[in-house]
Write a structure and sequence with these properties.
- The chain contains 8 helices and 10 strands.
- The two termini are about 25 Å apart.
- The strands form 2 sheets. It has a 5-stranded mixed β-sheet with strand order 3-2-1-4-5. The chain has a 5-stranded mixed β-sheet with strand order 8-7-6-9-10.
- It is about 40% helix and about 20% strand.
- By secondary structure, it is of the alpha/beta class.
């Protein structure tokens, strides 16, 4: 059975996934991207092959995506993360009309065509860190916590404070001010999530997003973010992996889409060969 790979070299994490001809996920792996993009892509690829007990020759097609897609030396093709995200979300949730992707450095709202799930329009928020996961990480560091502590902090929040700054600099000033007032870190972190959610909803409105929505990206692994989005949009909202309590799946949707596109590419190659 044909095996294809999707490699998503993101700004914060690199994700790799193997898919078979039936669209089943065979193996997946993720690790921090760092600054050696070609090397981390290679390591992730080697890891998923080891996990699946496969050799390079067993993988028939590799598609790279993400901001570091051009650095993947062993790729057969590269596609934009918008295209890959659309394909992955549509595969998991065929009724998806809109995608909200909140990553470490960017936030994207993507509107899809109704039938084929192709990108119809999109809007990006990549100019200010206050609209990305980096803002949450900076907030955690200001309070003396690591990224891994964000989830546990959010769980204990009861009364979030308002973080209303329209840019990262002003928002960070509000965080510092709240700390000086003795506000509990959990309430500050939840306030940061609420602020991020507000920006996300505004971005979706600019993209003219329609239900049903699918949420992807690293920030979605914190349950309070999807919950906050659901409260504001009051529509059908999908979270990949939620049914299986697999919180990491939202981070793999773009890599999944790339691998699935690899399967479609193989089909076209076979059709062309048959005609010839």
């Amino acid at each position: 059975m044909s095996i294809t790979a999707g490699i998503d070299v993101g700004s914060t994490y690199t994700k790799a996934i193997l898919v078979d001809g039936d669209g089943n996920m065979v193996a997946r792996h993720m690790q921090p991207t760092g600054f050696k993009l070609a090397e981390v892509a290679e390591r992730c690829f080697e890891e998923i092959m080891d996990m699946a007990n496969l050799k390079r020759s067993d993988v028939e097609y590799v598609i790279a995506t993400g901001f570091g897609r051009h650095q993947v030396a062993f790729k057969d093709l590269h596609v934009t993360d918008l295209t890959a995200s659309a394909r992955g979300a549509h595969m998991l949730f065929p009724g998806t009309r809109s995608i909200l992707d909140v990553g470490g450095q960017t936030m994207k709202a993507i509107r899809l065509e109704e039938e084929k799930g192709m990108v119809k329009s999109f809007r990006l928020n990549d100019k200010c860190a206050a609209g990305t996961g980096a803002f949450l990480e900076k907030t955690a560091r200001y309070m003396g916590y690591e990224t891994a502590d964000i989830g546990p902090l959010l769980v204990t929040s009861r009364s979030p404070v308002e973080i209303s700054g329209v840019c990262a600099v002003f928002a960070e000033s509000e965080v510092i001010n709240q700390l000086s007032l003795g506000t509990p870190p959990a309430e500050i972190m939840q306030g940061a999530i609420e602020s991020l959610t507000g920006r996300a909803v505004q971005l979706m409105k600019r993209a003219k997003a329609e239900s049903e929505f699918t949420l992807i990206g690293g920030i979605m692994r914190f349950p309070t973010m999807p919950a906050a989005v659901r409260e504001r949009v009051e529509a059908v909202v999908n979270l990949p992996g939620a049914a299986d309590n697999d919180v990491a799946m939202a981070q793999f949707v773009t890599a999944l889409g790339a691998a699935v596109l690899g399967q479609r590419r193989l089909e076209k190659i076979a059709e062309t060969a048959h005609v010839a």
